[in-house]
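Hey, I'm writing a tutorial for new members on how sequence and structure tokens pair up, and I'd like a real worked example in the thread rather than a made-up one. If someone can provide the structure for the chain below, I'll link this post from the tutorial.
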Amino acid sequence: MLPKLIISIFLFLLSSPSFASECVYVKYRGSVPTKSMECNKITDSSFIHRVCYDESNEYMLINLNGIYYHYCSIPPSVVESLLGAGSKGRYYNGSIKGQYDCRIYPQPKYEDICN
């Protein structure tokens, strides 16, 4: 019974959002700390590998085939829909790509702990 409990806890923690502090290199921006973001490892998509979201700044990082991109002023409802979509790649391409451009919308400033 105890080994099943330990395995269940391990699997739960593995699938839970991460709040660990790290820095990721974002294309068109540079290094960004994920300390204030909720990060989700995506296991049901061959295209999208990870999504990190800072709700207070409406800022999202998304790992597409190993490259991080960022989106600014992206509402929580859009990120929730992405995470809940049956086809995350299709949702991303139809509802996010080409919108929420950080050249138009303000980029949040984060403490420079990456260098």
